[in-house]
């Protein structure tokens, strides 16, 4: 298994864990023993995690911007309040997302919560940081954010009870997480408790009394963006589960990599995320390095190998896109904009 911090191996010591799919909401979750849970907690309270810095850039409105800037603009389109707003970011990391909101709209109170203090929090926003339990927060918010954090919180029931208590009657809940249907290899992240499809997240939130306003964005195509408000609780059930088919996809991923390895002697791998790390672990040797369009990542290393921009590829060099055919648009764009040979898994 892998860990999210740098997508390196996360080999558990004397621990067992099981993936289960809820028969009601059909969200997939990891059941762990106490030792595994302790290792996850220690990981997110470690100095390594506290000093880790990660900037993700996306193309938004014709230019490359930080992902937090795009997130804040998208969410603010749904907020109609003219008065200064109070925002709570659960899993705030370094405060960048709170800072992005602060730049775009009038804010009254900004609160960031995470397990451990981040030294750069005050550099990114003027808000207040807390690592005390969420139960200790005693005020109301107009917007509560869970950006890539709900999937790491083991007790969802307690989380939603607190969110319901802290959110104003007309307030908004914003959740941003990977879409497991588009990124099945995320199941291999051993430090993650929950995995959602758009449908299973809707059902879970409805159960806890939140209605999805159906936020959509072409900017984050591999992710789920949920923005909702308090609503009467509903109990609904999806038709069929997805865990078995996702595990088949993960195995297909492995088989495809092995088949491609038998054809090409050396290769570049596109990306510096979970899919790239998984592909590298299967390919094992003769990897030139990694390809990334993000200027924040090029010139650095990933898993000890160089990260270069695709414009640096020669015409005869091969770059593996560790995705299936749903990413044909990406393949077509890369082949049209750069030299090199870009190939998908199928």
Shape: globular
The CATH level-2 architecture of the largest domain is identified as 3-Layer(aba) Sandwich
Could you name the ranges where pLDDT drops below 50 across 5 or more consecutive residues?
none
Give the CATH class of the largest domain. Alpha Beta
Rg, rounded, reads 21 Å
Spell the H/E element sequence.
EEHHEEHEHEHEEHEEHEEHEHEEEEHE
The number of helical elements comes to 10
Terminal-residue CA separation = 24 Å
Total beta-strand segments: 18
Structural class of the helices, strands and pairings?
alpha/beta
What's the domain count?
Answer: 2
List the helices and strands and how they pair.
Blueprint: E1 17-21, E2 28-32, H1 34-44, H2 47-51, E3 57-60, E4 63-66, H3 67-76, E5 85-90, H4 96-104, E6 107-113, H5 121-124, E7 128-130, E8 141-147, H6 156-166, E9 167-178, E10 194-195, H7 198-207, E11 210-212, E12 223-230, H8 243-261, E13 267-270, H9 274-283, E14 287-291, E15 301-302, E16 305-308, E17 318-320, H10 328-337, E18 341-343
Parallel strand pairs: 5-6, 5-8, 6-7, 8-9, 13-14, 13-17, 14-16, 17-18
Antiparallel strand pairs: 1-2, 2-10, 3-4, 9-12, 11-12, 15-16
Main attributes of the structure:
single chain, 346 residues, alpha/beta, Rossmann fold, 2 domains, 7-stranded mixed β-sheet, 6-stranded mixed β-sheet, 18 strands
């Amino acid at each position: 298994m892998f860990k999210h911090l740098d997508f390196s191996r996360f080999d558990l010591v004397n621990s067992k864990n099981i993936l289960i799919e809820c028969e009601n909401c059909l969200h997939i979750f990891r059941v762990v023993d106490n030792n595994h849970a302790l290792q996850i907690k220690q990981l997110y309270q470690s100095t390594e995690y506290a000093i880790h810095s990660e900037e993700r850039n996306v193309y938004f409105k014709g230019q490359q911007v930080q992902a937090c800037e795009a997130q804040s603009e998208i969410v603010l389109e749904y907020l109609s309040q003219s008065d200064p707003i109070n925002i709570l970011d659960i899993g705030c990391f370094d405060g960048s997302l709170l800072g992005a909101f602060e730049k775009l709209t009038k804010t009254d109170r900004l609160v960031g919560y995470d397990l451990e203090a981040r030294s750069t929090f005050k550099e990114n926003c003027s808000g207040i940081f807390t690592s005390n339990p969420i139960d200790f927060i005693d005020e109301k918010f107009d917007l509560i954010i869970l950006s890539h954090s709900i999937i790491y919180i083991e007790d969802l029931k307690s989380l939603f009870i607190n969110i319901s208590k802290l959110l104003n009657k007309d307030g908004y809940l914003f959740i941003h997480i990977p879409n497991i249907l588009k990124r099945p290899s995320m199941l291999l992240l051993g430090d993650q408790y929950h995995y959602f499809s758009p449908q299973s997240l809707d059902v879970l939130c409805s159960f806890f009394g939140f209605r999805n306003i159906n936020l959509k964005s072409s900017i984050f195509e591999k992710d789920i963006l949920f923005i909702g408000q308090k609503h009467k609780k509903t109990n609904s059930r999806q038709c069929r589960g997805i865990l078995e088919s996702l595990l088949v996809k993960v195995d297909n991923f492995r088989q495809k990599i092995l088949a491609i390895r038998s054809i090409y002697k050396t290769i570049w791998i596109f990306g510096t995320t979970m899919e790239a790390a998984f592909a590298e672990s299967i390919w094992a040797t003769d990897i030139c390095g990694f390809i990334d369009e993000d200027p924040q990542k090029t010139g650095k290393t990933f898993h000890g190998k160089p990260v270069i921009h695709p414009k640096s590829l020669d015409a005869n060099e091969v770059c593996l896109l560790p995705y299936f055919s749903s990413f044909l648009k990406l393949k077509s764009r890369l082949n049209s904009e750069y030299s090199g040979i870009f190939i998908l898994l199928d």
